[in-house]
Amino acid sequence: xxxxxxxIETSCDETAxxxxxxxxxxxxxxxxxxxxxxxxxxxxxxxxxxxxxxxxLPMLVERALEGAGGSPExxxxxxxxxxxxxxxxxxxxAGAFAWGRELPLVAVDHLDGHQVSPFLDLEGGPARELxxxxxxxxxxxxxxxxxxxxxxxxxxxxxxxxxxAGETFDKVAKVFGLAYPGGPVVDxxxxxxxxxAAFFRQPRLKDGSNDFSFSGLKSAAxxxxxxxxxxxxxxxxxxxxxxxxxxxxxxxVVRQLLGPLPDFFAKYQPQVITASGGVAANxxxxxxxxxxxxxxxxxxxxxxxxxxxxxxxxIARAGQLAWAGGRCADARRLDAWTxxxxxPPGMRRSxxxxxxxxxxxxx
Length: 363
Ligand code: KG4
Ligand code: ZN
Fold this sequence. Notes:
Layout lengths: L4 E5 L4 E7 L5 E8 L1 H4 L7 H22 L6 E7 L3 H18 L3 E5 H7 L16 E7 L4 E7 L2 E7 L5 H12 L5 H9 L24 H13 L12 H19 L2 H8 L3 E5 L6 H14 L2 E3 L11 H12 L39
Parallel strand pairs: 1-4, 4-5, 6-9, 9-10
Antiparallel strand pairs: 1-2, 2-3, 6-7, 7-8
Helix pairs in contact: 2-3, 4-11, 5-6, 5-7, 5-8, 6-8, 7-8, 8-10
This protein binds 5'-O-[(R)-(carboxyoxy)(hydroxy)phosphoryl]adenosine (KG4) and zinc ion.
């Protein structure tokens, strides 16, 4: 039996709190979004994010304690990667909460959280057990990578060398004059366009690796928007020209994300393929992944739409699994991880695993 777990997530611009029961059922899941506060700036303002977390967190935790099926027995908090000030609000709050109630505390890596999100159910069911071999895509505003997990050990297979997929959606959408965050708007508009209208070439890295590179695609899309006189056109005045261009751009992002899949599938023979992170809400990506699953005869598990973007249910679940694997943090000493630190749930971390990629970015 796993402990009933309070999850806290404040790594970027969503303050999220959730409670999971002993079988990983989501008893409470709540989120206070700061999108409206950051929208005028066209991106997340770190200082503003921290202050909004400070305001929202105590209230959400109070509601979680009332809404859950019982008192939490474990506290799980995102300790990194993300915006340092924003992370610190959650980490200090969780530490004080755990210390005051004499509960164990687990520090969770945000990316581990995304990777367990496909195994959660928002309809009241228990969490699914993680199969032995999982091939996982994580694509969000700060991160794009494929991972392979085998018997509890996770390896990153490829990653973006520059922009993340969600960031690419957001930046191209901004030039179009679409609302922030642009990914969901592009998704909505692209459904009405034809991807055959324009073609964006896929990048080829000189070293022949499977890594992604989205900055060339971003620049090519922006050049095309300007060449067609569509800069700042906005959602309501988007004609077929704009819709077609958005559909072509979206299709190029999805093609790139799924490009390495056949290779990885052949090499790692996963029992399931998953996708998570904000971009896993994308309609075309979900359709294409389902298609690939049919082609390879393997199950594709996607998170419920309510759990693709940042949430605390995934943090609580990753925390439960880490706790079951023997991990625990010191409530008085836990600090935010300012650098990207990734590891599989339940695995112990050694100082040499600490990397420096994506410092201070949301994921
Ligand atoms: O995982 P997430 O909530 O947060 C972080 O990046 O930390 O991901 C947010 C990203 C944004 O870039 C957003 O534009 C993108 O996910 N996104 C989408 C869709 N929904 C959210 N991108 C494409 N299609 C969508 N439907
Ligand atoms: Zn995220």
